[in-house]
Design goal:
The chain is an all-alpha fold. It is about 80% helix and about 0% strand. The N and C termini lie far apart (about 85 Å).
Length: about 220
């Protein structure tokens, strides 16, 4: 019985400490947390910025600064190159505030999160495809936005990366004598990237590839 009483006393003591600590921390006002987050962000201390803005969002969810905190958390993750966390935060912002004026910026940043992960043509091409999807979505939904104009130059790079990847894969199949697979890739390349330099190369390779494929 004594052990049980002692257990409850310790539990109450710990919970009291936790309550005191939380109460002490929450002595910071929303304005103070905004100031802390802004100062940390400006200084490049993005982890501290995330903490300050997260505290603001958690402690003062109905504050006029809460939406700003959500956006700056995503931006801080982006600056830290924590792109998965940034995408999650940006998408959460868009889902919660679909009519907010920052949505074009949000879509652009999601596109950049993928764009910044573009790799060599022999690697995974998902970043190029995903960034292209976001940039096209931005242009379709907000054609007059300044961010739509910025997206245009990134689209060309994405398309170039994807066409080079398709040619790389098609050539690989050709070299390994998988002619039917190579033919499909060459045809796909021509159909989807008709204006690319890679498309012209594919056109030159198709006759020989089709000939070899028919022999098998």
């Amino acid at each position: 019985m004594k052990k049980l009483i002692l257990f409850f006393m310790m539990a109450l003591w710990f919970s009291g400490c936790a309550w005191f600590e939380t109460s002490h921390e929450m002595e910071k006002t929303a304005e103070q947390l905004v100031s802390e987050g802004s100062s940390a962000f400006a200084a490049g201390d993005y982890k501290d910025a995330v903490k300050a803005y997260t505290d603001l969002k958690d402690w003062y969810p109905f504050s006029k600064y809460a939406i700003l905190a959500e956006l700056k958390i995503a931006d801080a993750h982006y600056e830290l190159e924590a792109y998965d966390e940034a995408i999650f935060a940006y998408e959460e912002f868009e889902n919660m505030h679909p009519k907010n004026e920052a949505v074009p910026y949000i879509i652009y940043r999601i596109g950049l999160c993928w764009f910044n992960r573009l790799d060599s043509i022999d690697r995974d091409h998902a970043p190029a495809k995903n960034s292209l999807t976001q940039f096209h979505r931005l242009i379709d939904q907000f054609p007059e936005s300044e961010y739509a104009q910025k997206a245009e130059k990134h689209i060309k790079i994405c398309v170039d990366s994807l066409s080079k990847h398709e040619l790389y894969v098609a050539n690989f199949y050709m070299k390994t004598e998988k002619y039917k697979a190579a033919l499909k890739r060459y045809e796909y390349l021509i159909e989807n990237y008709p204006d690319s330099e890679e498309s012209k190369q594919a056109l030159n390779k198709i006759p020989r590839c089709r000939e070899l494929a028919n022999k098998k």
